[in-house]
Design a protein that fits this description.
The protein is of the alpha+beta class. The chain has one domain: Nuclear Transport Factor 2, Chain: A (Roll), CATH 3.10.450.150. Helix content is 20%, strand content 45%. The chain has a six-stranded mixed β-sheet. The longest helix is centred in the first third of the chain and has 13 residues. The protein is globular and about 35 Å long. It starts with a strand and ends with a strand.
């Protein structure tokens, strides 16, 4: 799972910096198997840090990352694997 072609939506492309996109893909790559087809990322500001809460439901998984940031983003994203490709999208694009 998540080892196929990767895509992102126009919303992600226009609002999420490339380095943060790559970090989110890396979170999925480095999490233990088995992996849920739906990965959830909640982005928020924690002082001068970008807080990223990465979670999934089945199996239950939750990890929080803090990254230095000059302008933290508040948003919610999904990375979904449908078997043939993986897509990163903003929650409102779902």
């Amino acid at each position: 799972m998540f080892d196929n072609e990767r895509y992102l939506t126009c919303g992600v492309d226009s609002t999420i910096p490339l380095d943060l996109q790559l970090f989110l893909w890396g979170c999925v790559d480095n999490m233990p198997a088995p992996k849920d087809y739906l990965q959830v990322f909640k982005l928020s500001a924690s002082g001068p840090m970008q807080a990223i809460t990465h979670s999934s439901e089945e199996p239950e998984f939750k990890r929080v990352h803090l990254l230095p940031s000059d302008s933290p983003i508040t948003n919610k994203l999904y990375i979904i694997d449908d078997g043939s490709h993986s897509t990163m999208l903003l929650a409102e694009e779902y």
